[in-house]
Amino acid sequence: MSGNHVNGRRGGAADTVLEVACDESGSDGENLTGGNTDVFAHAGVSLSEAAAAAAVREIRDRIRSPAEEYKANHLLREKHRAVLEWLLAPRGPIHGRARVHLMEKTFFVVDRTVGLLLDDADEAAVLFRAGRTDFGETGWRAFLEAANQLLRVRHDGDPVDVFYDTVDALRRAHPRTDAARVLERLSATRSLAVSYRDGFLAGPPLIPLLNPLLPAIVRTAALWSGDGRTVHLVHDRQNMLTPDRIAWIEGTARRAGIGLAGLRLVVARDDARVQVADFLAGIARKIASDELNGRGDAALTALLRPYVDPDSVWGDARSGALLAGPVQD
Length: 329
Hints:
Largest sheet: 6 strands, mixed
Order of helices and strands: EEEHHHEHHHHHHEHEHHH
Mean pLDDT: 92
Helix content: 40-55%
Oligomer: single chain
Structural class: alpha/beta
Radius of gyration: 21 Å
Distance between the termini: 19 Å
């Protein structure tokens, strides 16, 4: 795999540090059930600066838009389908040099809620996969919105009362279902929820439980360092990425044994590698969202599949298998 390398050390031995440029798409902060997007994507590319600049030039030459800054939506227009396929194709400029971590936002909400209150990942999966069927679309949407409000730092009204009133109403209306069984357990956790909310009285937490960006960056570092190499991340500037949060990312990675040498922020328009990561993140988010909602394009999904992190945070089994299933040679 070619990329941008700098000298570094890991484990006391001389090593090469792989520099990976990153960007995201689909960020709605903590509003995961009522935002503009249903998928969050975080992409990383290991292109050299020269290779990334060449790819951006090629995209501009092929699309010929007068826009000063190109975004993923330029490539997603039907009239530019050939350019999109070229970018993702096995012989394209980023194949083997880019990865993308996906998060299905509603599953992320369920996973975080059940994780906080029950510390049981299996129950989160059961609830997510049974909830819509057992409660119906309206009931399931009510649960998701109540859970989102419970975990958000900023909220309206009393999110604890709203959440447990919703839980009690749904489990009584739909007894003896798999989803109601999980809600029965959740109904006994009010004290944990109150403690969680009381923790905000001193001020907002450094790491909001529902913000997908921070854990996605840690996962991106893990993806690229999985073969024992050390990585350094270059990321588009984000208000969320304060010095304290960058320190949290680096510390979390270190404790997990991830070879993250550091994280540096740049302005996207000044770094072609980040621009390419932005393209991939936006493209992946749209293709994944279409597949999630049953309107997927089989050809584009197949082109995206080699880039998708198999450990993406994804609850829908059908679309998940298509997006991150085994790649056919």
